[in-house]
Amino acid sequence: MSVITQTQALDVPTAILKRRSIKTFKSDPIAPELLKQLVELTVAAPSSFNIQDWQIILVQDEGQKAALSAASWNQQQIIQAPVTFVFAANPKAGEQDLTPIYEKALETGAWNEGTINYFKNAIPQFQASLGDKQREYAIKDAIIAATHLVLAAESLGLSTCFMNGWIEEQVKAVIGAADDPDLAIAVVVPVGYAAEPRLNPGRLPLSANVSVDRIGNPYQG
Question: What are the strands, taking DSSP E only, across the chain?
Fold first, then answer.
């Protein structure tokens, strides 16, 4: 198997327009330095209060890939692709010790002591106000990170596929989280080199589902 490299990254608009959901992958591995770059671009995604309430599991072992495929209705993308990113969401992340996050923000100069003191009160209050929406909000953050992944991958010459077809409890068992009732699976994303291209199926006209100010006032562009 050869390692494929791309020297010129695509710009963001091109990556957005070029990306398709790929269903078949080559077995070519992803170079370790390229995979690391991809992970770094993924976790650069924003999250509520920067609590980074995701767990991202890179499934690469052949046995793990087979188990994850079985938990995903035997879809073969997971087995074919060299790595599959499982995006899990931790609804309780905001209740954990956030000291490392505060210290890093102080170190970078992004936050000062006043901001951190504000967040120390605001984050618990916000988390408590969410009630049973905590899971939903954590999943939103994980999905934002997954979107960063697929666009970064496209820009770097890789292909991806958002997968929504899987059984949550089985996926959690595969990644070693069967005993964590709070952890949610947000999305599963195989990453690799496309075995065949897919054409753009097109989109509805903007006026069909884009409105101005209120639904029913179509955006004309």
Answer: 54-59, 83-89, 159-160, 184-192
**CA-based end-to-end distance of the chain:** 47
Pairing of strands 159-160, 83-89: unpaired
**C-alpha to C-alpha distances, 150 to 17, 63, 108, nearest whole angstrom:** 12, 24, 27
Q: How far apart (Å, rounded) are the C-alpha atoms in residues 28 and 24?
A: 12
Quick check: helix, strand or coil at residue 133? Answer: helix
What backbone torsions phi and psi does residue 33 show, to the nearest 5 degrees?
Answer: -70, -30
Q: Which two tokens stand for residue 67?
A: 């188990």
Cβ(200)–Cβ(32) below 8 Å: no
pTM exceeds cut of 0.90: yes
Helices first, then strands: H and E counts in the chain: 9, 4
Which of the 8 DSSP states describes residue 157? T
CA geometry: angle at 142 spanning 65 and 206, to 5°? 110
pLDDT digits (tens, 9 = 90+) for 164-189: 999 999 999 999 999 999 999 999 99
Partner residues linked to 68 by β-bridges = none
User: Comparing C-alpha atoms, which of 61, 87, 76, 82 is closest to residue 159?
Assistant: 82
For residue 212, what are its two tokens?
């101005």
The rounded radius of gyration (Å) of the Cα atoms in the chain is: 19
CA 116 to chain centre: 27
